[in-house]
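Help wanted!
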Amino acid sequence: MKYLPFIWRQLTRNKIRTALTAGAIALAVALVCLLLTMPAGMDAMLKNLASNTRLVVVNEGGLVYGLPYAYIQKIRSLPGVVGAASWTWYGGAVDLDKGVEFPNFAIDPEAVGVVWADYNIAPEQLEAFRRTRNGAIVGRGTMRSRKWNIGDEVAMKGTAWPVDLTFKIVGEIPNDRAPHLWFQREYLDQALRAAGRNGLETMGIVWVRVDDAARVGPLLREIDDTFRNSEAQTSSETEQSYFKNFFSMLEGFVTVILLVTGLVALCIVFIAANTASMSVRERYGEIAVLKAVGFSRRLIFGTLLAEAVLLSTLGGAAGALISFALTQVLRGASGWNPSLGPLGGFVVSQAIAVQGLFLALFVGMISGVVPAFGAARRGVAETLREVF
Amino acid sequence: MIEIRDVSRIYRRGADEIHALEHVSLHIARGRFVALMGPSGSGKSTLLNLVAGLDRPSSGEVQVAGQRLNDLSEDELARFRARHVGFVFQFFNLIPVLDARANVELPLLLTKLPKADRLSRADTALRVVGLAERSHHKPAELSGGEQQRVAIARAIVSDPEIVVADEPTGDLDAKNAVEILGLLRDLCREFDKTVVMVTHDPRGERFVDEIHHLDKGVLRDSVAGGGGA
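Answered by r_m:
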């Protein structure tokens, strides 16, 4: 401890260089901490977002192919099914120049309260949704971001279907996690017929609520068996599994990001090592004087290494704090909103901060060990002769 | 105090051998102020390094303060220097980021003294060299003469028996040079230190007790100095 003031003075002799090096380390640690929050963030998001007793049924060939609307009646008649609602992508845009800014679907209004019971939509709003032909229920996230209120009318232009629709907001999904706008399927069907087109004969997704989690497995098989060898075979899974599969597509991406992060950390090691080398090289004379007055090689090595480790640890601590503050700001700004991907779930936990600090310690040790060793083993008489 | 017996020092530079010292023998008694003089390349700094435990001879024997230095390891030499030797350099070589007091305290970091005692001793050493009121100034805020005084305070703070000085007046004006030479002489007289100084400065001759002339690695002659007259 008695050497700490001495080490600190050496560390702060070139404040700009020290600050820049600490800044580089802080940035790298902040980046690593943020990326380390991804898996936990996705798990947390999945738990919040998805239910185990809500199933997703889509065309086996993929979402783009759709399913005949007639399937929904067959699904509703299967034992264990409490309710089923179709989703059909409308792709409506408030401003065509900006494109589709939030997901919007034509939906079966009578099933909403059953299939998404966990969304806690007010019963009177559900009733209004059923009664109002152009009624819409909108997620709180979208309501807030667009400053909409219940009773407002919203005009949208169709991008997936050639009809423009005007909706009256009659309800809100009281949860920031839902950005959707839902409206009556019949409203879109009638608008298409009025435009001289066939009615809405297909649907994109069927959401199914099951009465008991124990029946989920058999029911998934039963649904797919029901439509096997038909014109559109189905693929059924739980909502959790559905999102998990969606996220698993991101895993490769995350791996690449982690790899790049590792390389960035390695670059930071080189930068820090270069700084440590420069700092030691320009102090060869002073180090020789310290040796002359009796500082041993081990002590010289220790103080120089401690200098590098102290610098990187301070940088690392700043990085962990930055990442923590950033995630707090993100959470505050965006709320818990699945449309923003895993961003809302980012939480820099104590464990992640400790991992970031360990990374900083590692960077400090690796970057400091070579220059410290080189300086410690230089002969004192030889250095004094060279330098003075 | 210092016994040099038939010491040679040979450096190898590639295939060449440089004979920096050849069969030098020298005895320096305790409390003496000694000058090593000679032209550049005469081997005086090499001899000083051997006396200070910064280097080892190629042959012969170096005994200082009762210890044979030839066979000491690097760590043992470092401990020897910390205990027995104080250093004064031509360019002062203070640590620029530390103030005068912290520079003087440096050798005491190697002891087990508590901080209060270390600082008290550093203050005493600065008082001895007449710089008590400048203790919180950094080297850049001090004149050359003042910096050398701080360096002398650093050299004596751990109370070593020997002070080695390599061209201590080489970077000073005449007035400061005379003051520093007087200070080194006082260390011998008042504190019984043995001071070994390498110098080109002829003014030094009247302050020292004995002068040893070297040339081409060989000790040519030893004469009495002015002894502070």
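OP: Thanks! One thing I noticed: Chain A has two domains: 4-47+250-387, 61-232.
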